[in-house]
Amino acid sequence: MNPIIPGVYTFTGLIVGRVYLIEDGDGLTIIDASLANAAAKILNQLAQKGYAPQDVKRILITHAHPDHVGGLPALQKATGAAVMALTQEQPYIEGTQPIVKPKPADIRGLPKIMAAAPTTTNEPVPVARALEDGETIAEVMGGLQVLWTPGHSPGHATYWQAEKGVMFCGDVMMRMTGRLTLPFAGFTPDMAENKRSLRRLVELNPQVVCLGHGQPLMNDAAATIRRFAQKVEAM
Ligand SMILES: [Zn+2]
After folding, report:
1. How far is the CA of 16 from the centre of ligand 1 (A)?
2. What's the 227 CA to ligand 1 centre distance in angstroms?
3. How many CB atoms lie within 10 A of CB 111?
4. What's 105's domain CATH number?
5. What single-letter DSSP state applies at residue 80?
6. Strand partners, 217
7. 93 C-alpha to ligand 1 centroid (Å)
8. Nearest-10 crossing angle of helices 72-79, 38-48
9. Which of 14, 40, 44, 197 to pair with 59, CA 20 to 30 A apart?
10. 37-93: per-residue pLDDT in tens?
11. Measured in angstroms, how far is the CA atom of residue 51 from the centroid of ligand 1?
12. Number of domains in the chain
């Protein structure tokens, strides 16, 4: 586990889909759950820090793609934590609807092949608290705001701590190879909407951007994501 800022860490050694840990007085919050095989690694790293599974009180989900909720069934069972996600993402986490994929007519080449890959066969997990855009989760980081940032998925959430300038933005943007990119077209049903979400995040001027893929942006994050958003014509 690597520290990002005091009380916020990222788990290490997960294959794809970054997972974050937040420490608060009443226990722990985890953001996203990576692939199915990640749950054991997450629990191991918690144990190394002296935490029991039951110390995890909440699991916040950015979106219900398999690289972000694959480990959720096992992690929720082991911890008993309350799963939280935006109302718009709830049906995909609870398995009442298949995840939304781009229309084949809208994409070409490799993204088309990616979009044809099977939807998640994840075991459904009940959402204990369905969140609304703009609401604040008071018990996390002294107030963690929920932002509806759709495009990559219909109910994609970004979690934002305004006083600390820390943002957990899921896959609104990615940093797989060190450079910022938009999320893969093959997994993004509405890229225009995703760009509007990106602009909303840029306008918050975050100091730390914790991504769903790649290392967090720690230095000059606001200017970096603004330049990126301009480059991809999101603003
Ligand atoms: Zn992802």
Report:
1. 8
2. 22
3. 17
4. 3.60.15.10
5. -
6. 209
7. 14
8. 40
9. 197
10. 999 999 999 999 999 999 999 999 999 999 999 999 999 999 999 999 999 999 999
11. 27
12. 1
Q: How far apart are CA 144 and CA 12, in angstroms?
A: 23
- Calculate how far, in angstroms, residue 100's C-alpha sits from the geometric centre of ligand 1: 14
Residue labelled with tokens 């330049």: 227
Residue 128 sits at φ, ψ, to 5 deg, of -75, -35
Model confidence pLDDT, tens digit, residues 77-110? 999 999 999 999 999 999 888 888 887 777 777 6
> Ligand 1 centre from 235 Cα, in Å?
23
The pLDDT assigned to 117 comes to 60
Interval between CA 53 and ligand 1 midpoint (Å): 24
Residue whose pair of structure tokens reads 């199915």 in the numeric block? 36
In angstroms, rounded to a whole number, what is the distance separating the alpha carbons of residues 196 and 198?
5
Q: Are 162 and 66 in contact (CB under 8 A)?
A: no
Distance from the CA of 26 to the center of ligand 1, in angstroms? 29
State the distance from the centre of ligand 1 to the C-alpha of 199, rounded, in angstroms. 19
pTM of the model: 0.94
Distance 60 CA to ligand 1 centre (A): 15
